[in-house]
């Protein structure tokens, strides 16, 4: 089975926003870039706007695709579209996530990030933040 998800690179003041998962239990406590699954008939950009509003209470402007990642988990294959995003309304808060943090790109490797997000952590560490 293949899952298509979207993730946002939300940046502010040279830092990037990461969120902590609460579900499923096997991944709870790990950190990721905010986003989620597309609903039927939904565009990736609309899904990202909806997910960030639901998860962290912000409205974003979705920019260009910054990366496309593939990761094979034991039970499914994950294809992730990663977009540069800018907050246009609201302050991030943990609504449907365990916690959130603003992190400098060079600090990302110290966080317990999901396996699917690790290539993105490395790219951000070496290349820096996207220039939306």
Tally of separate domains:
1
Unreliable stretches covering 5 or more consecutive residues: none
The major sheet is characterized as: 7 strands, mixed
Our count of helices gives 2
Mean of the pLDDT scores? 94
Count every beta strand, where a strand is a DSSP E run of 2 or more residues.
7
Give the C-level CATH assignment: Alpha Beta
Determine Rg (CA atoms, Å).
13 Å
What descriptors fit this protein?
132 residues; alpha+beta; Nucleoside Triphosphate Pyrophosphohydrolase; 7-stranded mixed β-sheet
In short:
This protein has 132 residues and is of the alpha+beta class.
Overall description:
By secondary structure, the chain is an alpha+beta fold. The chain has one domain (2-127): Nucleoside Triphosphate Pyrophosphohydrolase, CATH 3.90.79. Helix content is 17%, strand content 41%. The protein has helices at 44-56, 118-127; strands at residues 2-12, 15-20, 31-32, 35-37, 59-72, 77-89, 99-103. Strands 1, 2, 3, 4, 5, 6 and 7 form a 7-stranded mixed sheet that branches. β5 (59-72) and β6 form a beta hairpin. The longest helix is centred in the middle third of the chain and has 13 residues, at 44-56. The radius of gyration is 13 Å and the shape is globular. The model has no long low-confidence stretch (mean pLDDT 94).
